[in-house]
Write a structure and sequence with these properties.
Pfam families: ABC_tran. It is a multi-pass membrane protein. Belongs to the ABC transporter superfamily. ABCB family. Heavy Metal importer (TC 3.A.1.210) subfamily. By secondary structure, the protein is α/β, with parallel strands linked by helices. Helix content is 34%, strand content 19%. The protein has twelve helices and ten strands. The strands form two sheets. A six-stranded mixed beta sheet has the order 6-7-8-3-9-10, sandwiched between helices. A four-stranded antiparallel beta sheet has the order 2-1-4-5, covered by helices on one side. The protein has one domain: Rossmann fold, CATH 3.40.50. It binds adenosine-5'-diphosphate (ADP) and magnesium ion. The site of magnesium ion has 3 residues, from helix 2.
Length: 294
């Protein structure tokens, strides 16, 4: 079971299989410390711990520079931590082979880079020839909400994109990036949501995409929009290189801490409305809310 695969389950065997799949899709960071190689003196993460249940939808929120993108890069093993450990399915990521890792976790950066290739080749990039048939590529694109705009391109899936070719919008590039991750059928999908690159329509598409993914698939999103955040199973507020609060939307509002301050309801318990409004989570305002609460 994985992100790109949805099926009905009824028998107890299937239920057991689902439980095993969920366990295999759980992710955890334990007391992770990390500095980027270019800035060895600055801790990007300083003792960050996070437990992500298999199949959960997790939103990472918090002030700009707090460490959200770095957490995704750790779980995607773009870097190894200097202290602590990151695990998927209870196994330290350092024990994964590169092929196994690529089939386990899919990482979609904030602004995915396209190569000067066809859209189809961009989606299947990195896979061996024959590993992803055109039908697999198209299915992944459909799941990523990208099939419609790709078909409308001059040569459909064979249209060359990237520098010097057909230019895609930020939202379209991100959906191609999601398709590129999904075609590998990962158990854990990591998505660094752009703050401004997505217009309302593409954002709604990405949102629907995430909602349609199989529940056995774990999704960790750096999220900026209340619409994405409030429905998450778990919201983790990342600031100063740590998780400073975590819980559901309503629990965090009730707590009246950093998250409540960012939502701007001051722990009044929330209420309806405002679902489409972006949170000022990457604004200086969020930083000052955090600093006030230290
Ligand atoms: N590629 C990088 N090289 C060096 N430092 C980085 C890099 N990316 C992020 N940082 C630094 O790491 C810290 C955490 O950043 P980041 O994870 O990008 O935060 P967020 O995604 O919450 O805005 C910040 O101090 C940031 O400047
Ligand atoms: Mg970021």
């Amino acid at each position: 079971m994985n992100c790109a695969h949805s099926a009905l389950r009824s028998s107890s065997t299937d239920a057991r299989r689902a439980a095993a799949a969920a366990a295999a899709a759980a992710a955890a960071a334990a007391a992770v410390t990390f500095s980027y190689p270019t800035r060895p003196g600055d801790a990007a993460l300083s003792g960050l711990s996070l437990r992500v249940p298999g199949g959960a939808r997790v939103a990472l929120v918090g002030p700009s520079g707090g460490g959200k993108s770095t957490v995704l890069r750790m779980i995607g093993r773009l870097y190894d931590p200097q202290g602590g450990a990151v695990a998927i399915g209870g196994r330290d990521l350092r024990s994964f082979g590169s092929k196994e890792l690529a089939g386990t976790v899919g990482y979609v950066p904030q602004d995915p880079e396209l190569l000067p290739l066809s859209v189809a080749d961009n989606i299947s990039y990195g896979l061996r020839k024959g590993q992803a048939a055109r039908a697999d590529v198209e299915r992944a694109a459909a799941q990523a909400g990208a099939d419609g705009f790709i078909r409308a391109l001059p040569r459909g899936y064979d249209t060359a994109v990237g520098e010097g070719s057909v230019a895609l919008s930020g939202g379209q590039r991100q959906r191609v990036g999601i398709a590129r991750a999904l075609v590998r059928r990962p158990r854990v999908l990591l998505l660094d949501e752009p703050t401004s690159a997505l217009d309302g329509a593409s954002e709604a598409e990405v949102q629907r995409t995430l909602e349609r993914l199989d529940r056995a698939c774990t999704v960790v999103t750096v999220a900026h929009r209340l619409a994405t955040i409030r429905g998450a199973d778990l919201i983790a507020v990342v600031a100063g290189g740590r998780v400073v609060e975590s819980g559901t939307h309503s629990a965090l509002l009730a707590q009246g801490g950093v998250y409540a301050g960012m939502v701007g309801r001051g722990g009044s318990g929330g209420g309806g409305g405002g679902a489409a409004q972006p949170l000022p989570l990457d604004a200086e305002a969020a930083q000052s809310v955090y600093e006030q609460q230290l």
